[in-house]
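Field: sequence (string)
Field: structure_tokens (string)

Example rows 1 and 2, in order.
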Amino acid sequence: MTLRSDTAELLAGAGILDVDVDDAVADEHVRSSAYQRVVSVTAASQSRDRDRAIVATILRDPIEIVSKTAVVDLVDRIAMKATGPVEFQQWSAGLLPETDRLEAEGNRAFIRRRIHDWLFYLSVKDGHVPTSAELAKATDWMQRVLAEESTSPAVLDLLGESARTKKTRNIAKTRAGSRRHRM
């Protein structure tokens, strides 16, 4: 496979006809934008059957930051649609072997951390109240997402006490306090 044939295949598979393949091959910014559109179409699909093949194709891009960014966007979009941690775990398990295509360990680790964060988020959303040790394994980003979105008083209290950053602790404390006043 070549970058040109991969790009053409991704665009055609997503039904995106207004991107010039040669422009996308020549310019990583055009290609990155095209990948974002492919990811958007892919995530909106009801079927998850083609996701692994799409990720494998994107990860063949010679510029790792371009491919990593697109894959992380897909992970985020699918996680937000997942009905729970089990569904997302099964989906992400199929993708993880594809991330071995990335040469930089930092890029592979980033995707693995993002998947871990979403599994953590989905388990909390499903009613799990994490321990301080479990919370410590979540990234600062995910701790902030939980502080901003969780409706669980126990989770907000834990974040208010144990989140790594002062900003996240303050968000959680403020939200926990405002929830108590409404009850």
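Row 2 begins here:
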Amino acid sequence: MAIHPNHFEYLHTVGFEETNLVGNVYYVHYLRWQGRCREMFLKERAPDVLADLRDGLKLFTVKVDCEFFAEITAFDELAIQMRLIELGQTQLEFGFDYVRLGPGGPETLVARGRQRVACMRGPNTRTAPARVPESLVKALEPYGPSALAGVGRTV
């Protein structure tokens, strides 16, 4: 199921450790899965950015949210689908669809989230905004709106 056709997908099976006493998934795990999806995107599609992170680039999550539509429980299979919503000079915004993959049944959108990330450089006490690396812009090209060229960047 492609809620948004141009997305990067991370597959996840819910474990008991991610559920609460009632048996449904504790909300904080949805946010953790956003981070994991973003990390796997960098590993698989933008390895140059990982090297840049070792050389001083910092990716700060400055805003995150998640809206829940249905409960999920242990052993549910999920596809966390990440897409680029906005690309600025120093910040990016990602959208996430959480889709329950039904064994022989329909796929269901169970949650939708967003995450705003700022690119920074410098020592921890004096970090300053930095341009989004071109290698990241290029890696995100297939996952964003066609209007990305409107921000003054060549993509």
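free_text_note (row 2): The chain has three helices and six strands.
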